[in-house]
Design goal:
mainly alpha; 2 domains
Length: about 90
């Protein structure tokens, strides 16, 4: 998959559709799920940034280190932190 943009668009459409369905079931407005608060744009961008960063770490750490070690069942917290530090220091 060379261009992830169409996939991201479909994810956004699916999330909006699911939110709309749940709003109709509960008899609420779609905007009652945290979008009516002040600072809408900053909350949206902050959430999108945090989500992007989380996905990047989950994808990037195994890719930049040894996947066999990362995905083995004997990975400890120490191993995870070590892999995280080495992957960040390689950038």
């Amino acid at each position: 998959m060379n261009n992830p943009a169409p996939v991201i668009v479909w994810y956004v459409i699916i999330v909006i559709a699911a939110t709309w369905v749940i709003a109709r079931i509960e008899g609420r407005s779609v905007f009652s799920y945290g979008f009516e608060a002040t600072r809408k744009l900053s909350r949206l961008l902050g959430g999108a940034g945090l989500g992007f960063e989380s996905i990047s770490v989950l994808v990037g750490v195994p890719r930049t280190s040894s996947p066999e070690k990362f995905f083995s069942l004997s990975v400890t917290i120490t191993d995870f932190v070590e892999l995280l530090i080495t992957s960040v220091s390689r950038r």
